[in-house]
Every structure is written in C-alpha cells, then in structure tokens.
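Ticket opened by: R.M.
Priority: normal
Category: complex prediction / small molecule

The reporter submitted a protein together with iron/sulfur cluster and asked that the result be attached to this ticket for the collaborator who will pick it up next week. Submitted input follows.
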Amino acid sequence: MFERALAPGSIGALRLPNRIVMGSMHLGIEHDAERLAAFYAERARGGAGLIVTGGSSVNRAGAGGRNYSFVNEPRSATALAHAASAVHAEGGRIALQLFHAGRYALSSSFGLRPVAPSAIASRFVPDPPHALLEYEIAQTIRDFASGALRARELGFDGVEVMGSEGYLINQFLSPVTNRREDDWGRDLPGRMRFAREVLRAIRSSAGRDFPVIFRISGIDLMPNSTTPAETCVFAKALASDGVDALNVGIGWHESSIPTVQHLVPSGIWVPYASAVKSAVGDLPVIASNRINSLQGAEEVLAAGSVDFISMARPFLADSRIVAKAARGEANLVDTCIACNQACIDLSLLDVPVSCMVNPRACREREFPEDTNATGTPRRFAVIGAGPAGMESARALAVLGHRVELFEAQDEIGGQFRMARRIPGKRDFGETIRYFTNELARLGVVSRLNAPVADATSLRDFDGVVLATGVLPRRATLEGHDLPHVVSYADVLRNGGVVGERVAIVGAGGIGVDVAHYLSFGEANVDETTRFLFEQGLAAPANGAILIAARKQVALMCRGSTIGQGIGKTTRWAVVRALRAAGVETLPNITYERIVPGGIEVRTAAGDVRKVEADTVVIAAGQECNDVLLEPLRRLGLPFRVVGGAKDASELNAVRAFEEGLRAAHELVREASSSS
Ligand code: SF4
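Result attached by the on-call engineer:
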C-alpha cells in the first residue's frame, strides 16, 4: 500500500523521504513566529516529504495582502527562520515560496499601486496596474534573486518560484496580460523572458546547489491565453535553464472555470501535469490541485506520468495525513472536503485561515493536544453528534477524558449526513467516516438512537456539551400544511421524494444544495467526463452526454442574492452550475401563499405570479434545538452550548466545529482548576 507515494525521491540536491509535497498556502499568520512555527512543525511531524511555505513576497508591490511575509525585509526574518528551524527540529524539509502577485496584488494596503507587464486590470482586483518600466523589471528580478539568497540564509532547504495561478510571472507569459512590444513581450520568447531571467538570477545569487522549484501553470483556463504547446516550450526552457523541478498549477484566480471547489472531480487536472512531464523528460514534475487523499496520490504516481504530488488543503484538514497512511491508518485521516470555507475564503478576506473539519489548524498553540497535562480523567457527556458534538467528543477524548456521545439518530454526522448527498459533496461522508473511526479509536462511547429527554440523567457527569443542532424552521406561510409541501430535511434525508416540478422557498446554502441535488440528474458518463464537457474543456468520446432524472426547479428568495452565505470561492461556481442545469432563479420576491399545484409569489415589479410546482420545498432557515438548555442550567453542572443549538441564524459548520473544540478545552480547563 502506498509504495509509490512513500518512496523516497530527490529534487535537485534535496533528498525527500516520500513523494508528497505540502503545497503552498497563505495562512495569514505569517507574522506570528510561534504560531507559524507550530503549524509547520506539526505538518513536518506528520510526514510531509517537503513543505512549501505560503508565498513570501519579494517586494511590497507584490503583496497578496497585509498579512503577507516579505522575504527581503528584516521584519519577516524572525518568523521565517523560526519556521525553518522548527521544521528541521522535526526532521522535515521546507522550501520558501518566492511570490509576486503582479496585478492581483493588494498593494493598496501599503499605499502602492499593483504592477504588471501591461496596464490591464483583472476581474479579481480591479485596481488598474502600472505597466512595469524596464528598470523596474530589472529591480523585480533582483528582488527575486535576493529573496532566494535570503531564504538560504534563513535556513530554508530550497525555494519555489510562484509562476502560476495568474500571478506576476504568469502574467508576463500570457498574451492576455502581456501586450508589450519590447523584449519582455511581443512573442513567446519575449513573454518567457521574465521567468527565465528570474530563474537565472536566483541561480547566480543562491548557488547552483540550492534547490529551485518553479510553479508553472499547466493551463490558465483563460480565453486566448498561453496554449498547451507554448506551455511545453516554456517548461523545456526552464529545464534547460537548470530548474530542479516543475510544480504544475491549474487556472487563474479570475478564471470562470472552477478548479478547487467541491464541484471539481478529484484528480481531474493530472493530465496537464503529465503533459508537462512528457515535455521535460527526466526533470521531476509535481502534480497539484484536487488530489485530496493518499489513495488518490498513489494512483496518480502509479500511472507513472508525474514524480511528486502536491497537496495543500489536505494538510490543513489533517497534519498527519502521510504518517497515518504510512502506519496503515488511512481510515483515520480527516479528509479535506474542498469546502474552502475556513481556508481560501478567509484568505481572500486577509484574515488567518484554519480548516472547517480541523479547527485546530493554525491554532495548534491555542489548543495543544500533544501534551499530557490533563490531570484526573473526568466524565463528559456530549449531546448531539453533528459537527460541533463530534469535534467536542474527539477533543475531550484526546485530552484524556472519558466521553459519552448521545445521538438521537442512528448515525453520527448531523447536517453532514444530508450534505453528502449533494453533487460534489460526497466527501462530506468522509468526515463522518473519519469521526466514526477516530471516536472509536479514542474510546468514546457513541450511543446512537439515544436522544436525551431528561437532563437529570446526566447528573453523574463532570460536564456536558449541548450540541443538539437545529430543526427546520416551522413554516407559517398560508398553505404550508398542503400535502405537496415538504421541508428540505424530508427531501435530503428521504432521498428526494418529490414531483417533477419543484419550487424551493429559500435560496441560502441549503436551498441551493436542494436545487443542485434535484437538478443534477444522472449522466451516462463518469463525473470527470461530464465536468470537462460542461466546462467546455473536452467533448465526450461518443457524442452527446445524456442526462436523465433532472427535475424542473425554481429557486426563490426574498433577498437579492441566490446562495447568500456561501463562501466567495464557491457561490459563483454553484450558481453557474444551477443555471446550466436549467434551474430558474427568482430573487427579490415576496411569498403570497402556497396553493394546490404551486406557490404564488409577488415579483419585484409587483405582479403576482403562480410558480407551478408538484412539490414545494421549504428551505427557509432553522431554529435552535435547545430544549435541554434550561434543564441543564438547573442541573448546575459545567456545560457549554455549541453549534446550531447555540445560534441557528445561519447554518455555519465552520463555527460549529470551532465551538465544539473550544468548548472541550474550556471544560477541561474548568475541571482542572476546580480539582
Ligand atoms: Fe479543506 Fe474545507 Fe478544510 Fe479548506 S476548510 S482545508 S477546503 S476541509
């Protein structure tokens, strides 16, 4: 098992114990030396073959945000050096990513204007960039070179040059963003020149023996951008200039094709890395994007077309993903479910990231779990086994306490049990698999089909976590008791027993999920072929794709935004998928009444319209399921209320997991201080 993934390999002079690279992620904690070091050290301990840091900007104009580190500035030196030495102390290896965002830069944070090869603004950052002058290009190249030397001096084992995802180097390569008529543009050799000069300058500053990985774009997913043939020419040019490995990224941030969202099938981008490998022969090539398991990595490596696999978010979700696989414990890996809600979405807000399913990520010092300082084992009850309850039970058990987890249903998982039915959200079931196995390993007693009706039955515990989640909000709309009206939970739990025409009341995250579930249908091809076809990237081999069992869906809301509350990186992709599936979206309406055969609504223009429907699905919010709250207060035990039981105003699994973790640590501290 995992023979290829766990086989040693080399990138230049650097020997790696396995083929798994932890990909670069901006964390937003780059100026907190202790926190950053703890994060990377835990991933080194967890078996990452090589860690690539989040981008460290080579100058202020290239910053992706206020929280970026600046490799060439003394203020970043302490944190970077500390991170490198913490990784080395764990026996790991770490490369610094040299970064310049170009026209994607949020350099206005520093009173600067973004720069780019040409003065063409992006959809992603509307500030118009300044077209770099010749002397400014030369200075930027020197900034990359000094950054590489600085990385070496700070103790890093190598550097990765960020040249993909639409950042500065990628902007020079692409005819979309490089309209220069001088020697830094005009034709392919001119467009490649900036990248090649950067590489040569790094080589001469940091030394031939200092490993350099170049992250290139396997495909930009932008109209009229660099062609596949040009990408291969570029890869060969870097190979001839002496690069030690190519890491192949996919897509620009402003591309209209999703690349890392849950809708994107796992492993779909590997062929683009394989094409680069075919061009460069023996040079190590790293495949990136949407590979989220060691099993997936092993399959890709076994096919033999790339040499390493880069996984980024999976190391947020589980720092020990490699070590667990090596120990034969892949069933205990907490899988990244590509939700983006606590990582990329927060990164775009320029605040520290974490992980929905692993809220300890980037908070390792706040929630230590590798100490044994828990004192006398206590008995805790956790009521409810949704996200908040599962995490509380796990954390309490890891901290050395005896835990009983009470769940009214016949399975743990809460809302994740419904989410896993949604197209692309199958991996939400992996979270349930992880907690099922991990809680059993930790000795948590899971009592299923065991609702707690009487709080006094808990009196022998030392503390309680109330995590009973939410109930669908009771509908009050006229006609809500008609036979064709159901709740979203009825649809998703019962496998979608609805008519052919469906109207959905409420277009928040759950309403959108229901619409996606009902409109997706069944295709006569596998999900990868379907995705490539639907995104216009490839046609199926045997003619058209047939999709059956697709419902006719109308999705309605009072507000102006379909998918309100869904994260920035995901909402647009899901709404686009719904429209492609023929879902009618009706924002800005007022509900009048539900009537036989449909629902009457008033449009923004004031007209009353009947939306024809065999089934009306109510997805108009939730209410706290907190009936045990007052009885618990009266009981007088230490307790915490978490997740939906605490606040149902918007279903937020990121908050639920985090509150579950925090409650566990608080209760343990409280118990210790009272002993
Ligand atoms: Fe993966 Fe979601 Fe965690 Fe990000 S927040 S690492 S996408 S599970």
